[in-house]
Design goal:
Chain A is 70% helix and 5% strand. In chain A, the strands form four sheets. A two-stranded antiparallel sheet of chain A has the order 1-2. A two-stranded antiparallel sheet of chain A has the order 3-8. In chain A, strands 4-5 form a two-stranded antiparallel ribbon. In chain A, helix 8 crosses helix 10. By secondary structure, chain B is α/β, with parallel strands linked by helices. Chain B is 41% helix and 23% strand. Chain B contains eleven helices and ten strands. In chain B, the strands form two sheets. In chain B, strands 6-7-8-3-9-10 form a six-stranded mixed sheet, with helices on both faces. In chain B, strands 2-1-4-5 form a four-stranded antiparallel sheet, with helices on one face. Chain B starts with a strand and ends in a 6-residue tail after the last helix. In chain B, 46% of the residues are buried. The chains are: A mainly alpha, B alpha/beta.
Amino acid sequence: MMHTQTLQRRTPALTLVGIVLTGVVLAILPFVVGIAGQGWVRIMNFALLYVMLALGLNIVVGFAGLLDLGYIAFYAVGAYTWALLASPHFGLHLPFWAILPISIAVAGLFGVMLGAPTLKLRGDYLAIVTLGFGEIIRIFLTNLNAPVNITNGPQGINRIDAFTVGEFTFGRAETIMGVRFTGPEKYYYLLLAFVLIILLICVRLQNSRIGRAWEAIREDEIAAKAMGINTRNVKLLAFAMGASFGGVAGAMFAAMQGFVSPESFSLTESISILCMVVLGGMGHIPGVILGALILAALPEFLRAVVEPAQHMLFGAVILDPEGIRMLMFGLAMVLVMLFRPAGLWPSAVRKRELAQRKGEAS
Amino acid sequence: MTVLLKAQGLSKRFGGLQALSDVGFEIQTGEIYGLIGPNGAGKTTLFNVLTSLYIPESGTCTFAGETLTGRKPHEVAHLGLARTFQNIRLFGNLSVIENVMIGRHIRTHAGVIGAVLRTGATRREEAQIEARAHELLDYVGIGHRANEVAKSLPYGDQRRLEIARALATDPKLLALDEPAAGMNASETVVLRQLVEKIRNDGTTVLLIEHDMKLVMNLCDRLLVLEYGKVLAEGRPAEVQRNPKVIEAYLGAGAAQVAQTVPGAQA
């Protein structure tokens, strides 16, 4: 915190140039990538969704130190909230300004629901309970089609409304001021805006009274209590904040895809998001973003490179890239844990923590 | 002199071990109250009961006119009872200044919305927290280490950082659990001056300590525990002459010698 402050004070011009350059790159990115095909813009959009999820999970795992293996549940809750309130399934078509806050609130509520019974658990025990919670939500979504059809079961819900502001819908391509925007390109800017808002919230919370309380709990819960921190409330706040970011991402997923089904919210997804946080550098916001981008891009990279490479070498696809995706994930994780145990871009704090553990072990 | 903390009939059992039985005492506002006793006498257990980390089986405790028993640990801190730990419990990976800033948590108010919008009130509060934390670090004498990592500090400085962090909660009563443990003679002298300064600046001090020289010179009154029971209470000079105390520390023979030979104790 202090470090960045002094940096900004010393080099305001350089920082400003950096921000402007980043802004320009982010603004024209979908058009550059779009040359290769709209599919790539969609992949970018998913990468942005993963950034949101990773930032949300980072609050729980990175800041407050609570290992959550069921985080995808909140993504699912957000997605289904949007799906149920804006699709022909119930005949509801609420506007975005109603659904979005409801999605956030419902996901936040689920966060508290998970947090409340697990307040006294830490480490492995918490991980097991959260893992179970994630599965419970998925199984509920699969089975809540009888006796009353709420979620439409494994078929999922389709024909979900796109994100629409008044007459402006993000689902369709249209020409604005002489520039043609496709649907995915429009969603890109919307998602980017959400990512920036979430990023701002994360950065500001980290360097605040609340962020310090989270760190205190992560470091030593008993000392935190003795210092007067209401650990129950502060932990629940972490769960609720993390969950509500997941809810936003889920709602955007539903609006963008127009279709949700329980199979999008499997344990594998929870683990992927956790991998993003760990691979990037727990508790360090730039690291978490990097981790999310790399792991979101990795399967697409495999698809784009491994398949043609196999065609060239063997004349046929021998290994399906989708099949070896988890294998590559695992390999990436093992390599990172071996060579950069604190993550690709770790925070100073995390580096110190690991340095100490190493010292104790030897 | 008013009573700041009053404990009556406190008992705490761990399985077959009666860690505290029927412990009662009073701490006056503005004094340095010592808590001594052989290892395993229940001193730290008493600390944990007072700060609600343990729930006693029986007994009551009042602090500054409020009931302490049955409260949550953070509520105890809120009422103005701050403590340090025998086996130092700093937020080790955070910087020294952040440790003290966390101590300001209960006396400040900024919430999520204030932090996210970075309102004027939040910014002012942050500046105050930081200023106060620096002040406290200077007060305990480790101001020059503000940006170091807490766990990289030398042992004595870690103890002093814990005191600064506890003071950041604006306590009425500061409970120190063996602050001089592991300190050398000159560090102990500095510590003694610090504890006296804290008392003179208006904070009552409760002190667990094994260093008898320090305890006898520093404390206004003492409570001696043995096997979870109160063995003696009173001024250091009285406690030192108490045959039961001499017996607990030195054995029965020593107690006899002390009684027959006036002035042989200590």
